[in-house]
Amino acid sequence: MIANIAVAAGGIGLFLIGMLILTDGLKSLVGNSQRRLMAECTSSPVTGAATGAFVTALIQSSSATTVTAVGFVGAGLLTFSQALGIVFGANIGTTLTGWMVALIGFKLELGAVALPVLLFAVLVKFFGKGRLALAGWSLAGFCLIFIGLDTMQDGMEVFRGVVTPDDFPADTFFGRLQLVGIGIAITLATQSSSAGVATAMVALGSGAISLPQAAAMVIGMDVATSFTAVLAAVGGSAAMRQTGFAHLVYNVLTGLLAFCLLTPFATLATHFTDAATPGAGQLALVAFHTTFNTLGVLLVLPVTGRFARLILWLIPEDGADLARRLDTRLLPDTGAATDALAGTLNEAALALFEQLRRSIEAPHARGVKPGLGEIHDALIKSERYAVDIQGRLDPSVDLGRFTSALHTLDHMRRLYHRATQSQRIATIAHDPALREVSAKFVTLLADLCRSQDLNAAERDFDILRKNLRDERHRIREAATLNAAAGLLSVDDTINRLDSIRWLHRSTYHVWRIAHHLGDLTALRAPHKVAASDAALEAELD
C-alpha cells in the first residue's frame, strides 16, 4: 500500500516536471512572439480574452500569461480593462491541458509510447541547436506528462474497490463544499491546477470518486489558482496587487457559478455518460471545467469596465512614485520586467521633458512635479533594476529591447545632467537671440508631452537638431564677431556659446530617447537609423 502511494506521488511529480519543462520549452521556442501577439491583438477586453486563451493554450501557463499582462499595464501598452480580458481568457486556455490528458492519456493511452519518444526528445535537446533543441525540450515535457499520468494510474490501481466514493464527502450541498475545499488544498499543495485536475481524473478512473465529486473538486482547483496569484502579488506593485485581487474575485464568482451548475451537470452526466466507455467520465469532467470557465468569461466581459473601476477603487495606484512599476516579483519573467522598466523610463522621460520645457519658459518657476529629484531617483532605481534583469537575461529573446533600455537610460542620464545646468537655461531664456532659436525646441517638447507620440517626436527632433547644428555655427560666428567689435562682453559670449551648445545637445538627446524608447515600448525589433549613436555624437563636438 505504501509503495503504491509512493508510486502515485511520484507520478504527480513526473506530471509536474513535465508541465514545467513543456512550459519552459514552449516559452523559449515562441520567444517574444506571444508577447507581440498579446500587445497587438488586445484592443478590448473581448479581444484580450481571445488572445489570453490562445496564448495560454500555446505556452501552457496561465501564470506566465497573467504576469505578461501585468507587465503590459505597467509599460502603458494596455489599459487595466484590456489586461483583465487577458486574465479572464487565460482561465479558458488553461483547460486545454485537461483536454490533452483526457483525449490522449485516457482515450488513447499513449503513456507507454511516450517512453521511447522521450529518449528521442532528449537526444534532440542534447544534439540539436537553437529552435530544434527547444522543440526537443518541449517534446520531452510533453512525454513526461503522460508518463507521469500512467505512473499515477498504476499507483492508484491498488485502491480500486478499496477506496470508493463513499469514503469521500457525500454528494450533498455541504459535502460538495467539503470537496471544493479538498480541491483547493490539492492545488495549493501542488501549485498547479492542471496537476490537480489530472489527479482527479485518475481518481475518477479508478472508481475512488464519482463524477459529481470530481467536478466539485475541480471547482476548488480552479478557484485556488487565484490564491497563488494573490500570494505572489502581496507586497508587489499596485498593478500586481490589482491583477491578483481581480483574478481572485473573478475566480470566486466563477466558482459560485460552477457550484450552481453542479446539480444540472450531474443530471446530464447520468443520462449521457457511459461509465463503461474508457475515458468517458474524464471527458465529461473536462467539458464541465471548460464550460463553466467559458460561461464565466462570457458573463463578465460586458461589465469588464465596471469591474476594472471597482478593483482600481479598492486598490488605488501607488501615488506619483515614478519607480512604482519596478516590481522585483516580475524579474523571473524578463520580458515583463523589461515592460516595467519601459513604463518607468517612459514616464520619467516625459517628466524630464516637461521640466525642460518649464525651465526654459519660466526659469524661476517652482512647484513643477515630479521634480528633478524624483526623476533622478527613478533613473537610479531603473539602473539597479536593469542590473537585476541583466542577470536573468536570455540574449536570444530579450537582447534587442534590453539594449534599447540601456540606450534610453544613457541618454536620459545625460539629459538630466543638462536639466540641472540652470545658468545655461537662464541664458537661453533671457538672451533674445537664443530665445528665438529655443522656441521651436519648447514647442516640440510641449507637443511630445501632450501627444506622447514617440514616432512623431523622433522625426521632429531629428529635423530640429539638424537645423540647430547649422544655427549653432551661425550664432558662434556672430557672437565672436560681436565680441571682437566690443558689442558683446567676453562672459556673455562664452555663455551664449555654451547655451547654444546646450540646446543642440539637449535636442539630440531628446531625439535619441524618442528613438530608443519607441523601440522599447512598442515591443518591436530595434529599427535602423542612418548611423549609430557613437557616430552621431561626433557632430556634438
Give a written overview of the molecule:
The chain is mainly α and about 550 residues long. The chain is built from 22 helices and no strands. Helix 4 packs antiparallel against helix 5. It is elongated, with a radius of gyration of 30 Å. The protein starts with a helix and ends in a 5-residue tail after the last helix. The relative contact order is 0.08. The mean pLDDT is about 80.
**What is the SS-derived class?**
mainly alpha
Task: Report the mean per-residue pLDDT as an integer.
Answer: 82
The end-to-end distance, rounded to whole angstroms, is: 81 Å
Strand content: under 5%
Q: Largest sheet, described in full?
A: none
Give me the Rg, rounded. 30 Å
Specify the helix fraction band: over 70%
Query: What is the tally of helical segments?
Result: 22
Order of helices and strands: HHHHHHHHHHHHHHHHHHHHHH
What general outline do the C-alpha atoms trace?
Answer: elongated
Q: Stretches where pLDDT falls below 50 for ≥5 residues? A: none
Q: How many extended strands?
A: 0
Short account of what is shown:
The chain has 541 residues and is mainly alpha-helical. It has helices at 2-30, 33-41, 45-59, 62-75, 80-93, 96-108, 111-127, 131-156, 173-190, 193-205, 211-233, 238-272, 280-300, 304-314, 334-361, 372-390, 395-419, 422-430, 432-451, 454-484, 490-521, 533-536.
List the helices and strands and how they pair.
Blueprint: H1 2-30, H2 33-41, H3 45-59, H4 62-75, H5 80-93, H6 96-108, H7 111-127, H8 131-156, H9 173-190, H10 193-205, H11 211-233, H12 238-272, H13 280-300, H14 304-314, H15 334-361, H16 372-390, H17 395-419, H18 422-430, H19 432-451, H20 454-484, H21 490-521, H22 533-536
